[in-house]
Each structure stands twice: as C-alpha cells, then as structure tokens.
Amino acid sequence: MRLAVDKAALKVLRRMQPKVAAAMLARLEAIAADPSAKHPNVETLQDIRNGFRLRQGDWRAVFELDTGAGIMRVTKIGPRGQVYK
Predict the structure, then answer these.
(1) I want to staple 55 with a disulfide (CB 3.0 to 4.6 A). Which of 18, 41, 44, 79 is the partner?
(2) CB contact at 8 A, 48 and 18
(3) Nearest to 77 by CA among 2, 5, 4
(4) Domain range holding 17?
C-alpha cells in the first residue's frame, strides 16, 4: 500500500524533532506495508470511515485506509489532545 501524507501533516512532521519524526514516519511506513496486521498503539476511530489513530509517545497521527485505491492517507499529525480538534 502506498503512503500519502497530506500537506498539513507533512508540515507538522518537518517541525518535529528529527528522531521523533523519523520514528513516526517509520511506524507509518510499517503500517502501510502491511495494514491488515495487528500493529501496537493503533486504534480505530469512530468518527472517520476507515480511520485510524497511531500513538507515538506524545504525538498522534490520524490516517485513513483506502484499500480499493491502495493508499494509506495520513491526514493529521499533532500533539496528544490537539490532533482530534
């Protein structure tokens, strides 16, 4: 599955500390490589169809899986508590 990061999420990713950003991106790529596997700290979101949340320390990433198109789209990345607003 191809990983696509929205412009707003990419902006936040670039502002993060390099080690934290690299860890977040590595986790997202691992999920995109095998989205059907059970990944730790990934939960289903109720408000977004095919939406999921990845917890990486104090940071959260919200993403959607489009299995028909083969795209995992990261829509938001942010600190805990602010990403869901």
Answers:
(1) 41
(2) no
(3) 5
(4) 2-79
